[in-house]
Amino acid sequence: MSQISIDLNVEVPMRDGTILRADVYRPTAPGSYPVLIQRTPYDRTGSLNVLIFDTLAAVKRGYIVVQQDTRGRFDSDGEWLPWAYEQKDGYDTVVWASGLPGSNGKVGMFGGSYTGQTQWAAALAAPPGLAAIAPQITWSDPADGLMFRGGAVELGLNAWWTLAQSLAQLPKVVEDPDELLGAMATTIADFDTLATKGYWELPAAPLPALTRAGLPDIGVQRGLQNPDTTEECRVAGHHDQVTVPSLNIGGWYDVFQQGTLDNYIAMRERGVPARLVVGPWPHVNAFSFGQIGDVNFGLLSEVAPGAKTMTDYQLDWFENYLRDGSDTNDSGAPVQLFVMGINQWRDEEEWPLQRAVATRLYLHGDGSLSFDQPIDEQSHSDFTYDPADPVPTCGGNLVMSTQFPAGPKDQAAVESRADVLVFSTPVLTEDLEITGKVTAELFAATDGPTTDWVVRLCDVDENGVSYNIVDGITRVSTEPESIDKAEIDLWSTSIVIKAGHRLRVHVTSSNFPRWDRNPNTDTEVDDASKFRVARQSIHHNALHPSHLVLPVIPH
């Protein structure tokens, strides 16, 4: 399939008369071909698309490919209101694409992040012709990684993303050239100074950087003001509306990692064909050659096994569902995981793994971690949390301004702080595999009405370097000095902690600017002078045994 034709700026009418625009790539040879669609707010002609999926490679394999700007973005008409129109527009686009000249009537969808969500939105609408989706690195519940996490604002992502989208949108909403130039200059300056200025400004929503440019907060603030917004982009709880197979591709250090896993779990529980692939990847993994954060996972980590590229992997999977005469039988392993630590891909028949043993890892008063429950009667560890001097974000599952790279990072600077409690196991004498969801249960007290608890699990290598694996946060309201049980979801991982290494746990009250700071007061705070310093206490005794629960794989 060597010849390709391209139709640019093709008009795609929506049911309300709005015109969206797309580029259509097709083989020139006569025949009947399946159609693949990406619906993106990030410019259908942009270089980012090639990193997610190689359009020309797909056409050479015998697919018609449609790259479409979503409503209100770039060449498409209408109002840009994230998530609001994706179900209806997705339905209309699939129906239109299934009737294109040369189409065999079967449509698949691809893409990641927002363009992963546009696939789920279309699948929820159930248009005729949609036969398979391949969502990458996308969420399930917007309250668990998109807008919020554990009740805290996902500030690092939302401030960066909202400003980035505003830059592209300004020419559409500001008509006066002088006003446009000023708004662009203001927004660019705010984008460039997020790490030193923008993230620190109050309130966390609406973002002051947006109000300066006269733009609405299309992310968190819209979600806070309008509960319907979270429903517009929610997949969780609606999987029963989806009947098409899904290829779910995620990364252990992706900001939407748990959403990818949860979407897969929900579809398999319903008996709808689904496959899951998870590598050691962050949200954006362009030309890393296996280097993620401070750790090199090797070249084989770049591509799922059995494929030359991730595009090939997706196309091989689409063959099961989109070709005329295909038997709709995906014979590949339903789950393919990259196991960090030993840096190997492994096929599995399920997720989560039923053979995983929920194993408690307890915090102790001497700073140790142990699989033995504490016997002390009064043991606790104390620290002071000052929201004016929060613990800085250092690696993890994030998408933020470039000063904050994702992935495993050396935690030395974090662990040296007085407001971070550090607990470590002795050196392990044999390998320990952790594959599945990690959770924490803290018995904790604060002297104010509200605060945050942050827990992080780390792998300490033979040289004493501590690398973050997973972490989580929960925002609590409480009676001062009351010892309450706090449950923290640290999300999931697959890693072998090698013999000679140690496990380490951090307990603190901030991870900023990834998550917004809790001011430790139950009143609205728009000025740092209204912060209050909190006295925190973590209990780890026989009556209050604070611990993590690890999914340990027996060997």
Compute the CA-based radius of gyration. Answer: 24 Å
Strand order of the largest sheet: 1-2-4-3-5-6-9-10-13-14
Give the number of helices.
12
Helix content bin: 10-25%
Amount of beta strand: 25-35%
The coarse silhouette is: globular
What is the end-to-end distance? 48 Å
Mean pLDDT across every amino acid position: 94
Question: Which runs of at least 5 residues are low in confidence (pLDDT < 50)?
Answer: none
DSSP summary, beta strand count: 25
Major beta-sheet overview: 10 strands, mixed
Structural class, judged by helices and strands? alpha+beta
Detailed description of the structure:
With 555 residues, the chain is of the alpha+beta class. Helices cover 21% and strands 32% of the residues. The chain contains 12 helices and 25 strands. The strands form 5 sheets. The chain has a 10-stranded mixed sheet, with helices on both faces. α3 packs across α4 (114-125) and α5 packs antiparallel against α6 (177-192). The longest helix is centred in the N-terminal third of the chain and has 19 residues, at 155-173. The model has no long low-confidence stretch (mean pLDDT 94).
List strands and helices in order, with pairings:
Elements: E1 4-13, E2 19-27, E3 33-40, H1 48-52, H2 55-60, E4 64-69, H3 86-98, E5 103-112, H4 114-125, E6 130-136, E7 148-149, E8 152-153, H5 155-173, H6 177-192, H7 208-212, H8 220-225, H9 227-232, E9 246-253, H10 257-269, E10 274-282, E11 291-292, E12 295-296, H11 310-322, E13 335-339, E14 344-348, E15 357-363, E16 369-370, E17 380-385, H12 412-415, E18 421-424, E19 432-446, E20 450-460, E21 466-477, E22 484-497, E23 502-508, E24 534-539, E25 547-553
Parallel strand pairs: 3-4, 3-5, 5-6, 6-9, 9-10, 10-13
Antiparallel strand pairs: 1-2, 2-4, 7-8, 11-12, 13-14, 15-16, 15-25, 17-24, 18-23, 19-22, 19-24, 19-25, 20-21, 20-23
